[in-house]
Design a protein that fits this description.
By secondary structure, this protein is an alpha/beta fold. The protein contains five helices and five strands.
C-alpha cells in the first residue's frame, strides 16, 4: 500500500520540482535583467546628470514639469512646491501610471536622498527625463523657492 501511494504521488512531485526549477530560472533571469538595466543606466548618466539645482529652474518651467514630492503625505500636507503631486518614494513605481513619460519629471524630498532613489527607479523603468532636485525641499525653500532662478540670475544693484 505504501509503495502504491508513493507511485501515485510521484507525478505530483515531478510536477512540483519542474515548477520550482522554472521559478528559479525566472528569478535568475529577472535578476540578470535588473542588473543589466542598472548598468546601462549608470553608463548613460553623467556625473550629476540626473540632478538639478533650484537656481537652474526658471519659474515658468515648473508648469511644464510633473513635480513629484516623494515625502510622506503628512509632510506634503504641511508644505510643498506649488503644483506638486505626492507620491511617496517607495510607491513611485506602483503609481507610475500617474507619471507621463512625455513630460519632464522633477522629484524631490527633504534633502534629496530618498528622491534620488525614486528618480533612479523611474530612470531604470524607462522614464528618460527625470531630474532630482539637489538639496531637496529644504534647499529649494532656503534659496527662494519658485524665485530661486530669478534671485540667482539677477544682477545685484550697487
Amino acid at each position: 500500500m505504501n509503495m502504491i501511494h508513493s507511485l501515485r504521488t510521484l507525478p505530483f512531485l515531478v510536477l512540483c520540482l519542474g515548477a520550482l526549477n522554472s521559478h528559479l530560472v525566472w528569478a535568475t533571469d529577472a535578476k540578470a535583467v535588473a542588473v543589466d538595466e542598472m548598468s546601462a543606466y549608470l553608463e548613460f548618466v553623467d556625473y550629476g546628470g540626473a540632478t538639478i539645482f533650484s537656481e537652474q529652474i526658471p519659474k515658468a518651467e515648473y508648469a511644464k514639469m510633473i513635480v513629484i514630492d516623494t515625502r510622506d503625505a503628512n509632510q506634503f500636507g504641511k508644505e510643498h512646491i506649488p503644483g506638486a503631486i505626492n507620491i511617496e518614494w517607495r510607491q513611485v513605481l506602483a503609481k507610475s501610471a500617474l507619471i507621463p513619460k512625455n513630460k519632464p519629471v522633477l522629484v524631490y524630498c527633504n534633502t534629496g536622498s530618498l528622491s534620488a532613489q525614486a528618480g533612479f527607479s523611474l530612470r531604470v523603468a524607462g522614464w528618460e527625463n527625470v531630474r532630482i532636485l539637489q538639496g531637496g525641499y529644504a534647499e529649494w525653500k532656503a534659496k527662494g523657492g519658485m524665485d530661486a532662478n530669478l534671485k540667482a540670475t539677477s544682477t545685484p544693484q550697487h
